[in-house]
Amino acid sequence: NAGVMQNPRHLVRRRGQEARLRCSPMKGHSHVYWYRQLPEEGLKFMVYLQKENIIDESGMPKERFSAEFPKEGPSILRIQQVVRGDSAAYFCASSPSGGYSYGYTFGSGTRLTVV
Amino acid sequence: SQQGEEDPQALSIQEGENATMNCSYKTSINNLQWYRQNSGRGLVHLILIRSNEREKHSGRLRVTLDTSKKSSSLLITASRAADTASYFCATDGNQFYFGTGTSLTVIP
What we know:
The complex is a heterodimer of chains A (115) and B (108).
Chain A: E1 5-7, E2 10-13, E3 19-24, E4 31-37, E5 43-50, E6 53-56, E7 65-68, E8 75-79, E9 88-95, E10 105-106, E11 110-114
Parallel strand pairs in A: 2-11
Antiparallel strand pairs in A: 1-3, 3-8, 4-5, 4-9, 5-6, 7-8, 9-10, 9-11
Chain B: E1 5-7, E2 10-14, E3 19-24, E4 31-37, E5 43-50, E6 55-58, E7 61-66, E8 71-76, E9 85-91, E10 97-98, E11 102-107
Parallel strand pairs in B: 2-11
Antiparallel strand pairs in B: 1-3, 3-8, 4-5, 4-9, 6-7, 7-8, 9-10, 9-11
């Protein structure tokens, strides 16, 4: 069991470029969550997805950020026209159900640096 | 906000000592979880305690939950240098809410 796989581990983008972060959940997990961790801060919830559905995107910035979890393939967090303030670690977690009873399995994160 | 808040923000102890971290939250919960994050790594789930439980043990970890005070504590006994990490509590909901963590440093 490979666990939650996130790639790339490190991503450097220039201001104005697009960043695509990928997350493959654990086998058998159909619920995916994205979190952002700014330097010296805790994790902040961004979005909760099931296959082909966005369940809760209350933590997503209104502009430039989008997420998807297609029927086939990994979940993608997309940041358009990146700015320096987007520099952070982005963590993905998966769970087999709504997560209430099982907790999450987290990936190692993608560290995005905007230069 | 239902966010968990950990206390203290930072803790430094000698190897072999016990470390206690606290977490407070604001609204009713179904369960509370503790996670560990080593520097530059992802979160690792440590332990889950349900709202009808008062205490739970896992190896050197002991978690208590007081729903009347909306607080939880994580005790790490006989600490080791490898326990150096940030520790987060998280409460449930449609998504889990995390506090900013307690940064624990165990000095060899």
